Amino acid sequence: MLEGKPSGEVALLSKVQGAIARPATVKAARGLSHFGEHSAGWFAAGLLGAALDKPRRREWLTASVGVVGAHAASIAVKRVVRRPRPEHPSVRVLVGTPSKLSFPSSHATSTTAAAVLYSGLTGRNLVPALVPPMLASRLVLGVHYPTDVLAGAVLGGAVGGVLRRLTSRNKRSR
Asked: Is 11 exposed, middle or buried (0-12, 13-18, 19+ CB in 10 A)?
């Protein structure tokens, strides 16, 4: 564990926690954490879309698999990078995690992928409503550095964007 005054990303993480980690915010962040764990909540949302929107069931199922694929990509990157989670006396860890690896945030990755893919299916831009709260929640809970959540959002956006373009192209060619 690093001692002393926090600097760099640790200082920023500590400031974020100090500014917004109130009981209600922490409770909401934990809820988002549980929903996003292993991309299960986003996968379930896609399955619900498939059940309710029968004419586009195939597209919803493809998007759902894409969300899980984005999550898997983040796990692969984590295992290569092997960045440990924040550990400093100024940072409070407020939720358990399935691993000690931090970069990129899998929650940020799967949430951004879901927002991009499901935006295409709902006709609404879900990114501003879904992504910032999930990214902030990972900081509030003290389990990621700011660059972890930003990298996760970039990875999820890339996976979601590529899959969305591919499925749109395939749909047009049918």
From this structure: middle
